[in-house]
UniProtKB/TrEMBL annotation:
Swiss-Prot/TrEMBL keywords: Membrane, Transmembrane, Transmembrane helix
Protein name per Swiss-Prot or TrEMBL: Secreted protein
Transmembrane stretches, start-end: 6-26
Organism: Streptacidiphilus cavernicola
Tree of life domain: Bacteria
Amino acid sequence: MSTGLIIVIVVVAVVVVALIGVAVAMPQLRSRRLQQQFGPEYERAVAQHDGDAKEAERELSERVKRTGELELHPLDPAQRERYLARWTALQEQFVDAPGKAVIDADRLLTELLRERGYPEDDQEFALSVHHAGSLDGYRVSRSAADRAAAGSATTEDLRDAFVRARETFDELVTEGTGTTTERTN
């Protein structure tokens, strides 16, 4: 066998081994990327799929694809100031009427999401892609707003929900500005 043929065989073998290595590593890299992007939502999706990580990852990847088609945008300064003023009013309202304040905070978050370009029919779905870290707080505040409307929320539930709603509000109202809002609750 000639030296040239041996070199070609070795090069082909190295390329094949490298391709196999990449093929093996890609799913792990994809999993790690989705875990980092979605945080606790990744584990929630795996649990919803009875521990089937591949199926959960398929769903999460679909979420990324679908929300990639959205035209999300930050608020302009005037919009931001209006939302901040409305939140301040909600904080003041919370002292005297915590249930109503949580319900109104839920409505304000829904309006803010819509104004930012999130779809009205499934804001939670899109929020999971762009703000996975505050998604649990969003869910807590939504649930508490429902319980408040039914008259079954405790004051502690309402307080926790209001604080969690504020975290989501802060992310949404300041995204794209390089600033954060000052917490007063």
